[in-house]
Amino acid sequence: MEIVRDQEISEPLSPTGQFMSNSVLSLSIIAVMELEEPFDDSLSIIPFLKDVLLPINPRFSSIMVGDKDEVKRWKKVEVRLSDHVNFPVFTAGMSAQFYDECFDEYLSKMATEQFPQSQPLWEVHVINYPTSHAASTIIFKFHHSLGDGFSIMGALFSFLKRADNPSLPLTIPSVQLHTSKYGRTFSMFRKVLTFFSCAYNSASDFCSSIIRSCLDKEDETPIRSGHSGVESLPVAITTITFSLDHIKQIKAKLGVTLNDVITGTIFLGARMYMETVSQGSGQCMQYIIGAA
């Protein structure tokens, strides 16, 4: 990759971006796009990425460099798109269950690999094999320093088009809430109570965490083994599908947000795993699940 002149060095990385890109910690955002139809290689994804993806954000065509003060900055480079697009090859003519396993193994391996520092920190992986969920799958991998999950998803949604009218950009329906004056007053009162409740719980949890870390040794659990070097152990990624209608039903019944439902589901799954591996180890997560 050929680096352009030094005048192309732009703004420094944000503190969060620098924190997430070092020899100890490197975080990535992975987005999986499942297609109902097999991906047509003849469409050539390279021109598409050049004309659509790269112009969205200048960081997609920049690398990290350090200045004389050892502050990381973005530097514009010439992007060789062929280095960013991968077409994994699996055994042909196998069942969807076989390709499910291949997909999980490939995703687990790809997710833990470090980005080459000599090129922009993003990749596209096209898996043109039918799984039980899709005819083809496209995986986008972005380093977290390029943006947070919200901005990255916004960038991906920006080049999607509506199936009924491709000339229009993708839109997500918004919900308009109509409440009476009494309802608005009750809602404001509820927000005030929620604010003070969150402030109290946050302060209480913070103080208890400080006390436990100073006085008590944290118990070992199936999630926290206490062994050194766990960050170097193999990682396996599996997927599970939830019905959005079921999540909305839970949201409406409990009067919470979608994030609350998903977070509670994750904590419940973690607790069930801990209880399965070691009886009684999930008790330490009980109060978290109750709060979620």
Automatic annotation (TrEMBL):
GO molecular function, one term: diacylglycerol O-acyltransferase activity
GO biological process, one term: triglyceride biosynthetic process
Keywords associated with the record: Acyltransferase, Transferase
Pathway: Glycerolipid metabolism; triacylglycerol biosynthesis; Lipid metabolism
A GO cellular component annotation in the UniProt record: plasma membrane
Catalytic activity line of the entry: an acyl-CoA + a 1,2-diacyl-sn-glycerol = a triacyl-sn-glycerol + CoA
Lineage top rank: taxon: Eukaryota
InterPro entries, A to Z: O-acyltransferase_WSD1-like, O-acyltransferase_WSD1_N
Keyword check for Transferase: yes
Domain O-acyltransferase WSD1-like N-terminal: 103-262
Name of a matching Pfam family: WS_DGAT_cat
Record-listed E.C. numbers: 2.3.1.20
The protein's name in its UniProt record: diacylglycerol O-acyltransferase
Native species: Salix udensis
Taxonomic lineage: Eukaryota, Viridiplantae, Streptophyta, Embryophyta, Tracheophyta
